[in-house]
Write a structure and sequence with these properties.
The structure is a homodimer.
Chain A (H helix, E strand, L loop, with lengths): L8 H7 L4 H5 L2 H15 L4 E2 L6 H5 L4 E4 L3 E4 L21 H14 L4 E6 L1 H10 L7 H9 L1 H24 L4 E6 L7 H7 L1 H14 L5 E5 L6 H6 L4 E3 L6 H8 L4 E6 L8 H16 L4 E5 L9 H13 L1
Parallel strand pairs in A: 1-4, 4-5, 5-6, 6-7, 7-8, 8-9
Antiparallel strand pairs in A: 2-3
Helix pairs in contact in A: 1-3, 3-5, 6-7, 6-8, 7-8, 8-10, 13-14
Chain lengths: ~325, ~325
């Protein structure tokens, strides 16, 4: 459950007065924040605390994360000249990330750590828009209007995503998640031609470096894209709550496990309603080739930690 | 093309210093704003300029539309007692709406006017959240947590939506559009049980009053819902750009025409790219039982009116 922290008082305590990017680059904080939901809920894996723009900042992109807004890029990406501002990411630029992972793995013991990185499309959307955007108009204008520049941009971002993940694996992460938050805004035919090659390249680079590490690939609102997202190569495809889990699995194909997809809004429903939907999700998962129980989107900041704890216990009891 | 106004200098001129709700309740302004894109583009129909919360304000709900934010509700809807604040909407409460339509119909001549209203789910989401929301957590908590209260709320809103549309038809609108902006956030099984009955009731009330007036029903991100949205009864189902038009039509069923679905982001692509996608959309539409060309979402505020004019001309030439 990504973003489980936001709803935890102990998270808000350690983050008080500390900027988002600073928290992501301070090993003691990353370790503490990543561990918090594991401690509280006893979930079966930890997900590395980071922000999608951390690797961009690491290669020198000027970016700040404004509270209540999100990432804001100093000089948005607009022309071929901007490619020069996206050099490869090398492990030496992010010693703190390896350090955070090593601290975490030591603390986690048998509980596996899942590494985390943003996918090329979503990284590109922040770079091109200059910040969060409702309609991704500039991103798509570049994608539709200048496919060679777009491809060059995504190719660089794929290398950056892959490098960010392999650093985490080298330090001890036992699985990775490639997170494509906004890709659901792309029509399927365009996804296949203009986005999937870069996601596949990132996933493939990870696989070539570490063939035995399972890869999870998640996006929101991806109903129409699932077959193509599956074909991008991850062992596990995460899906949101908009699509029944078994139908999602049918689209993704039998080579892949699915992850998801309880609607986070159900955390605010009466327990009997929520419990039934948890059971339904587990049941639907049993009709797939493999299922990782998860929410179908991030944990809402107003979620009650005690309710999340009951959900985890219920899943474990089933 | 809803929200065509936002990108027009003549729209920004007449709106300068005038609040959104005030513009929607001033017949001379509604007429002028509705006519502006018709004048500029020579489109085949006009869409009534209004805001989704206008009928709520008309029955007495305290609501203001804050620039850059959206509708903000004074006292959000939370309990059964709030139902009393949602009485039926009567034509006498909105004499200006009938007046606007009559002025418009006189000006439009042979060009038909499409009436407009928000659908019950989307109206409920504003009432319950108290304003725009990313995840609709409170709305869904009520929907999942208290189905009888939710049903009572949606039933009232269905009557309000239907009344708002029938006033427009009685004054001369020749088709209507029921707009369900946020319904794409509801999983299909829940839509069928908890949302569709109210949308169907609104559409049915319109049909019983005016059996020959075609009804258009639109939502964003509705790929998984299309069969059920079709079954709600509208003659035409609008779809966004996330799904190919012919696949959408297959899901909606052969009794319905489809409306859509050019990605508005393509308006920012080079003309050759855009023109090809316009042709593709018209071609895909020809493979359906009936097609109304439209964008797959509102017109972005930064769209170039000259580009929109070329798109309309191209569609007319095909």
């Amino acid at each position: 459950m990504r973003q489980a922290g936001r709803s935890l008082p102990e998270y808000r305590r350690v983050r008080a007065g500390v900027g988002m990017l600073e928290s992501c680059r301070t090993p003691e904080l990353v370790t503490e924040i990543t561990l918090q939901p594991v401690r509280r809920y006893g979930v079966d894996a930890a997900i590395f605390f980071s922000d999608i723009v951390v690797p961009l900042a690491a290669v020198g992109v000027g970016v700040e994360i404004r509270p209540g807004v999100g990432p804001v890029i100093d000089q948005p990406f607009r022309t071929a000249a901007d490619l020069d501002r996206l050099p490869d990411l090398h492990a030496e630029q992010i010693p703190d990330i390896g350090e955070s992972v090593r601290l975490l793995v030591a603390e986690l013991g048998p509980t596996p750590l899942i590494g985390f990185a943003g996918a090329p499309f979503t990284l590109a959307s922040y770079l091109v828009e200059g910040g969060p955007s409702r309609d991704l108009v500039r991103t798509k204008a570049l994608m539709y209007g200048d496919p060679p520049l777009w491809a060059a941009l995504l190719e660089r971002l794929a290398r950056i995503s892959a490098a960010f993940l392999t650093v985490q694996i080298a330090a001890g992460a036992r699985a990775v998640q490639l997170f494509d938050s906004w890709v659901g805004a792309v029509p399927a035919a365009d996804y296949r031609r203009l986005v999937q090659p870069a996601s596949a390249a990132a996933l493939d680079a990870v696989h070539r470096a570490f063939p035995h590490v399972p890869r999870i690939h998640f996006g929101v609102g991806t109903g129409e894209l699932l077959a193509d997202i599956g074909a991008a190569g991850a062992e596990v495809v995460g899906v949101d709550f908009r699509i029944p889990l078994d139908e999602a699995s049918r689209r993704i194909g039998p080579q892949h496990a699915v992850q998801g997809n309880l609607d986070p809004a159900l955390l605010f429903a009466p327990w009997e309603v929520l419990a039934q939907r948890v059971r339904d999700t587990v049941e639907a998962g049993r009709r797939t080739p493999g299922h990782v129980f998860n929410l179908g989107h991030g944990v809402p900041p107003t979620a009650d930690p005690d309710v999340l704890a009951r959900v985890v216990d219920l899943v474990h009891s089933l």
